[in-house]
Amino acid sequence: MRPHLEGMEKDETFSQREGPSLAIPAQAMILREAVMTAYSITGNLSAATTLCSSLVDEDLPGEQQASAVLNQLHHIAMRRPKH
Predict the structure, then answer these.
(1) What is the phi/psi pair of residue 12, to 5°?
(2) DSSP code at position 83
(3) What is the pLDDT of residue 26?
(4) Phi-psi bin for 61: left (phi > 0), alpha (psi -120 to 50), beta?
(5) What angle do CA 59, 73, 69 make, to 5 degrees?
(6) Tally of structural domains, the chain
(7) Which of 1, 35, 61, 74 has the fewest CB atoms nearer than 10 Å to its CB?
(8) Which domain range does residue 57 map to?
(9) DSSP structure string for 16-77
(10) CA–CA gap between residue 25 and residue 46 (Å, rounded)
């Protein structure tokens, strides 16, 4: 049984190390989506990044900020007149 337990310990350590590193790419993808959504609203990359910056809620934890900005951008896009 001991080898099986050692294997589990290694798996747990490996999972703990991978956990935070997997969150970074997800946040980067959400941030990219937010900037692209803002770009589709503004038509200008500089204005898009300014819009994203203005929507950041400093009271939220860092890992939730990009999602909150993207959510707000979706609400803005839905209120805009359709072509």
Answers:
(1) -65, -45
(2) -
(3) 87
(4) beta
(5) 25
(6) 1
(7) 1
(8) 2-79
(9) HHHHHHHHHHHHHHHHHHHHHHHHHHHS-HHHHHHHHHHH--TTS-HHHHHHHHHHHHHHHH
(10) 23
Q: For the whole prediction, is pTM greater than 0.70?
A: no
pLDDT score for 18: 52
Joined tokens for residue 35: 């900037």
Q: What does the pLDDT profile of the chain (83 residues) look like in tens digits?
A: 444 444 444 444 444 455 555 656 888 999 999 999 999 999 999 999 999 999 999 999 988 999 999 999 999 999 988 76
Tokens 């890992």 belong to which residue? 63
pLDDT of residue 27: 86
CA gap 57, 70 in Å, rounded: 12
Number of residues that make up the chain: 83
CB 34 within 8 A of CB 70: yes
